[in-house]
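Re: folding output
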Amino acid sequence: MLTQEIIRRKRDGQTLNRRMLDLVMRGIADESMGDAQIGAFAMAVYLNGMNQEEAVALTESIRDSGQVMQWDALDLQGPVLDKHSTGGVGDLVSLVLGPWIAACGGHVPMVSGRGLGHTGGTLDKLESIPGYDVTPSNDTFRRLVKEVGVAIIGQTGALAPADKRLYGVRDVTATVESIPLIVASILGKKLACGLDTLVMDVKVGSGAFMPTLQASRELAEAIVAIGCGAGTQTSVLLTDMNQPLADCAGNSLEVFEALRLLRGDGRNEEVRGEGKESRLYRVTRPLATEMLLQSGLASDANDAERRLDQALDSGEALERFSRMVHGLGGPGDLAEHAKHHLPTAPVTIDLDADRAGFISAIDTRTLGLGVVELGGGRRNAGDAIDHRVGLSHIAALGQRIEPGQPLLRIHAADRAEAEAVAQRLRHAFSLSETSDVAIPPLVHATLRQEDLP
């Protein structure tokens, strides 16, 4: 069948079957389809949508456009599982979650991405570790998944190659905001890793990819339906991004924070003069619990939490992270001597409040863009990253601030850059005279196949 006939069918609102979608994805992957046809296909899907059967077929076609990992020959002693996030600010969950799950008996082949827009990227964080190789050989990757239980690397050209070209064309043809295309892009790459279980973290709030709770929930429901339809046990947690997840944002700063949590030191934070479990911990733990439950590694929630506590308290989760880092070329003593290995910015300045009040709202997207302005993210695809820069000591929603008290600390390459960014970041915080600040729940909902309408 001619590619243009398939595009015409979708343009006219007809459904496409798996054979047609396989033909299109093969054409994208082997470059026999030009960008004009890819753009026309994407626009036809954007305008007409897809039913669930079509969306599952599209996801499977993207998954099967390249290598699909097989793990049977390795005789793994546990399930293969992973987590993926729609992206946020101060979201370093993957750095903690992968080794934590490995310490509980899972095998986590985590293929991650770089920063996109105002959101940070897991690979950029890991590349702040000297020597860490995000593109190891396939043998090294598989060996670490088997022996250590976790390896976090970048997408290779062999995995879902159709997605890379399709996404690039969507980005310049105003067709990014299409639920079937978004879900197929996310799941096509993840399911090519040969997963038994996938848990998604879909963000909600001012720093989220989707603009509203309704849009985030619609995306979450589609992910569960399509992931399960493609044969992988899939569930979603809707989590809050109305403030940074950690109290820091920036590549090496977030690695420091991951190590703190894996050591057990980062569980608590000081808010309004009292200590309580940190936001990062309170999101990572339920994601980990869901992974253990859905994969069968835990019999119920109490069993899952007991296993997670044991893995953290015993130091096993930190050891798995250290072994992964060393196995991918990083220093073997990173956990013990992080300050020696991780880069730090030469200039730090505090952004002080100019009046008293309670923090009533945070424009999280603006904070993320501040990190990009400092050089910690990319304005263009080929930009180099300054792993040293970022923000720390970010004040929290509901926190009482006095005049002269820091709203956050800026880590920069030079003072002029820090001061320029500071002026814009001040507007990211709204202050109220009263303490009755509405603080959204960190986990809005958990969606599984049985919860779908």
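--- second protein (sequence, then structure) ---
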Amino acid sequence: MKFKEKLAAREVAGELYVVDIEAETLHSLNPAALLIWNCLEKGLDAEKTAVRLAAEFDVAPATAAADVKDFMKTLAAKGLIK
């Protein structure tokens, strides 16, 4: 998994704002999505990312795994990851 090359991101008050420069779109990520984004950016796989999400937000591991999977599908659909 790789992030699209022409992205600009800035964290503000616990949220991440991602600009897709080519598509001229702005995406706002809440704290849970920010955690997932950061894990993926560090090269963690979906399973390890889900473990961190479950621990950080005190949710069931199955719920965290489903959330990570859904978020990655959303990123792919928006063309932000390959």
